[in-house]
Specification:
102 residues, alpha/beta, Hypothetical Protein Ychn, Chain: A
Length: 102
């Protein structure tokens, strides 16, 4: 099974998401949590990189963190799946390893 990568820092403040996208392999999952959800928005430079990565990786964003920052699923780029806390747990259970980018 593939690895699930999680990142929680805003792509406006760190390069964690950029590094994650550069170093992950096709087939991996990437879950954006906390301030990393900013990277999944249509209006960001990181969103363009995520859209490209979504061609061969599964990209997820945690819905409650998105909502806590005042955004809706409609503002998320195509190819990114919004998951709830139950979906987060399912992703962890489905993947053999979880790598946190902190």
């Amino acid at each position: 099974m593939a690895v699930l990568h999680t990142t929680n820092k805003s792509p406006l403040q760190t390069r964690d998401l950029e590094s994650c996208l550069r170093l992950t392999r096709p087939g991996c999952g990437i879950l954006l949590l906390e301030d990393a959800v900013y990277g999944a928005l249509k209006s960001t430079e990181a969103g363009a990189r995520l859209a490209e990565a979504a061609k061969d990786r599964r990209i997820y964003v945690l819905g409650p963190d998105l909502a806590a920052r005042g955004f809706t699923p409609e503002e998320v780029i195509a190819g990114v799946e919004v998951v709830d806390y139950g979906g987060f747990v399912d992703l962890v259970a489905e993947h053999h390893h979880v790598q946190a980018w902190v």
